[in-house]
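[job 0412] stage=complex_fold ligand=pyridoxal-5'-phosphate status=START
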Amino acid sequence: MKFNAWFQCINGCSGRHPLNEIIYRCPQCDELLEVQHDMDLLKQLSSEEWKALFKDRVGRHEWPYGSSVWGKKEWVCPNLDNANVVSTLEGGTNLFWAERLGNQLGLSDLWIKQCGMAHTGSFKDLGMTVLVSMVKQMISEGKNIRAVACASTGDTSAALAAYCAVAGIPAIVFLPRDKVSLSQLIQPITHGVLTLSLDTDFDGCMKLVKQVCEKNDIYLANSMNSLRIEGQKTISFEIVEQFNWDVPDVVIVPGGNLGNVSAIGRGFEMLKELGLIDKYPRLVCAQAQQADPLYRSYKSGFKKFEAIQAKTTLASAIQIGDPVSVKKAIKTLQTFDGIVEEATESELANAVGRANLTGLFCCPHTGVALAVLEKLVNQGKIKKHDRVVVVSTANGLKFTDFLHKYHTGNLEGISSEFAYSPINLPADYEKVKETILNNVD
Ligand SMILES: *Cc1c(COP(=O)(O)O)cnc(C)c1O
Ligand SMILES: [Zn+2]
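[job 0412] stage=complex_fold status=DONE, emitting structure tokens
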């Protein structure tokens, strides 16, 4: 069966552009593009047929359908030769039942979608597999692409570096100096990717990489490139499939450049249009107070949006003042009865501290989402029996420096409510026993 998808302007300008064309913005109005699928072709299969097909593929051997992104290839990027897919078996992440944390917050049905359990430790793999696969296809067709580049707050660069290394395609990453974690910095380096550590912030890196990619035959891998959104929207597919095709009441996701909240919305829209679900969840975008341009716009009823200068936040991957996908995100939030809420540094750090005591191992961005969850429960906007999914965006192991500082009380201006530290002792039975008895009831 034949399926089809193309780029189209989000403002609705006419004109379709093939997915293997090097184009990021509408030639008529300069707005972002989005991928549109031929929905009539997808409707040739019934919702039950799609469900059965997806279920059969994931985790199996047949290339490339074992990946949870490529197991839905027809819905993601049908115009791609399987031989050009660059995959590390992405997706299929755990939906963690946060029973103890839920109880503490007064919720009976709380789940954490563990998107950080991924090849490079963040959800960015889901989109990067699509983008780099399309690059491989374009190169195989003879298009002139010397390298792929991105600006990053640390996770996009890690994903780009890994996927390009898998495919043998040169990559360049633009990082804001001293604003990514050591693990994030080391990822592109160990993949042998040209790593530019620039004396600016993410928004500054973004401006430069756009300029570089305008000429020079270098392909831009940031999420204004909507191929990435197509991969990331599989987060929604996975969530409802894991609930046996039931839709949760609320989905909370931390937002920086705002591609992911838009992607999750797209995922639910597609599921509904193709009859696999019959309602929408409420979508919540969680921002760090230090970098909250969308929250400010939400407060004005989305009447206006102003970019800001983002301030330093522990949630470094969302330290963005001028988000590329803001228009898409606002449209999404309006469709999904959306809420935007924010968290202070202290709130996000202590939300991680609390959650980790229940067996999670959260990154600071997940902390933003969890702190926002707490607020919405207190405000009565989330009810006791609501089924809530918090999208955990990265693996906590990428942010051990933050956790170490949290537990040693070295986060400036933050009092660590759930801090624990190791106890130094001589190797002496009596001392060890005494200490244990003093600390265990
Ligand atoms: C990229 C990223 C985000 C933000 O996603 P956007 O699509 O930029 O809003 C959140 N958390 C982590 C860990 C990320 O890497
Ligand atoms: Zn346009």
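The two ends are 65 Å apart (CA to CA).
[job 0412] exit 0
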